[in-house]
C-alpha cells in the first residue's frame, strides 16, 4: 500500500516536472562569439571590457521548454521586463546574420507578451511565469512594445506580431488607459508607497505610475521620463496596430493616449528655474508640486533623446541636460576617476555606468563621448565588467557583481559611437508639439 502511494506521488512529481519550463542546452551564438573574439583595436582594456559586455547577455539566458527566451537580470534570479529588453538589444545588430540570435530575440519578445497578459502591474517574473515583484512601473509596459517595434524595423520581420503578442499589447494599452485616472479607476496598492496608495495626484492626461525604473517608489506619481517613453512606445504601438494588425480602432486608441500624455508632459512637466530656464521635471503631481532631479535608471531625463522622445538639440532638453550634469542635481556626484548621475536606490556618492552611458549617447561632441568612455574604462575593478554603481574615487567599491543591463548598453555604445555601426531605429515624434523648440 505504501509503495503504491509513494509510486503515485513520484509519478505526479515527475509529471509536474515535465510541465514546468526547463533550461535547454546552452545556446551557441556564432555571430556574437565571432564579434567578441574579433574585436581588436589596440587597447587591451577596451577589448576586454567590450568582449565581456557583449557576451554577458548570453550568460543570463535560458531557453525555456515552451520555446521562449528567459533573461535574468544577473545575480538576482528573475527577469525584469525593462532589464531584459535592454540586455537583448545589442543582439539586434546581429539578428539578420545568425538564426540562433534571431530565435533568441523572437523568444524574448514572445515571453514578454505572456508576462503582460499574466499581470501588467508586475515588473519582474520567474522562469515559470510567477510574479517575482509587483511594482507598477510604466516603463515595464513600454519596453516590450519598443523592443518588438525595433526588432521589426531592424530586421524587416513582422511575423513576431502573433495573436498572443497582440493580447499582451492589449493588456498594456488597457492598463495605461486605466491609469490615466488612477484615483477613480485603479485599485492598485503597494506597501512601499505612501499609505500604500502613493501621494494624491490631479488628472493631467498623463499615466500614473507607482515606481521609478530604479524600483523605488515615486515621490510624485507622474514620472516624466516614463511618460516620455510611453509617448514613444504608444507611437510605435499605433504603427504596429495600423500596419501589421490592421486594427484601426486600437491604433486610434494608442494615438489618442499618446497625444494626451504628450500634452500633459508639455503642460505639467516643464518647469522654469532661475539658473537654467525651462527644464523638464523628474516627477510632478498635477497639483503644482515638482521634483527636480534625475535618476540613473532608464528611462531618465538624461536619456530622452536616446529613447527617441526629443532631439539632443531641443532647447528645453539642452537646459535640462545642463542642470542634470551639475551639482545642482542632487544625484550628481564627482570623484577622482569618474563623475555622473547616481540613484537613491544606492548610497550617496555612487555613480551608475548606465547614466554615464546615457551622457555619452546624448553628447554633442566627440571629446565628451571619448571622455565618457575613458571614465567607464577606469571603472573596471578587475573583472572587466560594468556594475550597478561604483565609488568614483575607488572602483573596487561597487554594488552588484553581476548586472547585465549596463554591459549591454556598453557594447551598444562602443559599436554605434566608435565602430561606425548605424544606431538602432527609434520612433518618431516629429508630429508632436514641444514647448520651447
Give the helices and strands, then pairings.
Layout: H1 2-19, H2 30-37, H3 44-60, E1 61-63, E2 69-71, E3 79-80, H4 81-87, H5 99-118, E4 124-125, E5 131-133, H6 138-155, H7 163-178, H8 182-185, E6 222-223, H9 224-244, H10 248-268, E7 270-273, E8 277-280, E9 283-284, E10 290-291, H11 304-307, H12 315-324, E11 332-334, E12 339-341, H13 353-361, H14 366-378, E13 389-391, E14 394-399, H15 404-418
Antiparallel strand pairs: 1-2, 3-4, 4-5, 6-9, 7-8, 9-10, 11-12, 13-14
Could you walk me through the main structural features you see in this protein, from its secondary elements to its overall organization?
This protein has helices spanning 2-19, 30-37, 44-60, 81-87, 99-118, 138-155, 163-178, 182-185, 224-244, 248-268, 304-307, 315-324, 353-361, 366-378, 404-418, and strands spanning 61-63, 69-71, 79-80, 124-125, 131-133, 222-223, 270-273, 277-280, 283-284, 290-291, 332-334, 339-341, 389-391, 394-399. By secondary structure, the chain is mostly helical. The chain has one domain (44-418): Glycosyltransferase, CATH 1.50.10.10. A hairpin with a 3-residue loop joins strand 7 and strand 8.
Amino acid at each position: 500500500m505504501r509503495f503504491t502511494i509513494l509510486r503515485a506521488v513520484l509519478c505526479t512529481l515527475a509529471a509536474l516536472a515535465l510541465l514546468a519550463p526547463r533550461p535547454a542546452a546552452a545556446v551557441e551564438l556564432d555571430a556574437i562569439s565571432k564579434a567578441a573574439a574579433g574585436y581588436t583595436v589596440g587597447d587591451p582594456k577596451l577589448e576586454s571590457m567590450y568582449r565581456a559586455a557583449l557576451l554577458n547577455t548570453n550568460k543570463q539566458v535560458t531557453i525555456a521548454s515552451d520555446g521562449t527566451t528567459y533573461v535574468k537580470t544577473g545575480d538576482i534570479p528573475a527577469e525584469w521586463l525593462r532589464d531584459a529588453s535592454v540586455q537583448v538589444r545589442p543582439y539586434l545588430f546581429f539578428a539578420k546574420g545568425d538564426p540562433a540570435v534571431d530565435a533568441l530575440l523572437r523568444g524574448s519578445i514572445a515571453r514578454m507578451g505572456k508576462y503582460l497578459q499574466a499581470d501588467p502591474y508586475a515588473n519582474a517574473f520567474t522562469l515559470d511565469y510567477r510574479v517575482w515583484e509587483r511594482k507598477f512601473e510604466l516603463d515595464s509596459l513600454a519596453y516590450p512594445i519598443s523592443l518588438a517595434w525595433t526588432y521589426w524595423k531592424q530586421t524587416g520581420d513582422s511575423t513576431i506580431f502573433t495573436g498572443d503578442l497582440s493580447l499582451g499589447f492589449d493588456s498594456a494599452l488597457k492598463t495605461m488607459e486605466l491609469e490615466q485616472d488612477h484615483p477613480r479607476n485603479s485599485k492598485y496598492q503597494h506597501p512601499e508607497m505612501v499609505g500604500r496608495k502613493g501621494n494624491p495626484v490631479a488628472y493631467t492626461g498623463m499615466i500614473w505610475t507607482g515606481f521609478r525604473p530604479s524600483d523605488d517608489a515615486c515621490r510624485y506619481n507622474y514620472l516624466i521620463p516614463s511618460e516620455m517613453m510611453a509617448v514613444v512606445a504608444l507611437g510605435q504601438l499605433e504603427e504596429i496596430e495600423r500596419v501589421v494588425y490592421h486594427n484601426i480602432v486600437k491604433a486610434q486608441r494608442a494615438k489618442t493616449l499618446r497625444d494626451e500624455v504628450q500634452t500633459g508632459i508639455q503642460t505639467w512637466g516643464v518647469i522654469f528655474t532661475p539658473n537654467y530656464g525651462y527644464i523638464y521635471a523628474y516627477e510632478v503631481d498635477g497639483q503644482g508640486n515638482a521634483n527636480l532631479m534625475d535618476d540613473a535608471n532608464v528611462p531618465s531625463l538624461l536619456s530622452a533623446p536616446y529613447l527617441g522622445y526629443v532631439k539632443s538639440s531641443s532647447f528645453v532638453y539642452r537646459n535640462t541636460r545642463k542642470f542634470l550634469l551639475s551639482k545642482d542635481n542632487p544625484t550628481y556626484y564627482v570623484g577622482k576617476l569618474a563623475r555622473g548621475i547616481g540613484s537613491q536606490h544606492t548610497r550617496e556618492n555612487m555613480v551608475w555606468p548606465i547614466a554615464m552611458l546615457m551622457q555619452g549617447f546624448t553628447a554633442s561632441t566627440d571629446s565628451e563621448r571619448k571622455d565618457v568612455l575613458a571614465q567607464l574604462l577606469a571603472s573596471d575593478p578587475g573583472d572587466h565588467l560594468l556594475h550597478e554603481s561604483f565609488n568614483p574615487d575607488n572602483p573596487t567599491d561597487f554594488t552588484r557583481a553581476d548586472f547585465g543591463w549596463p554591459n549591454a548598453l556598453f557594447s551598444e555604445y562602443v559599436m554605434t559611437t566608435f565602430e561606425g555601426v548605424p544606431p538602432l531605429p527609434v520612433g518618431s515624434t516629429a508630429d508632436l508639439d514641444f514647448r520651447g523648440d
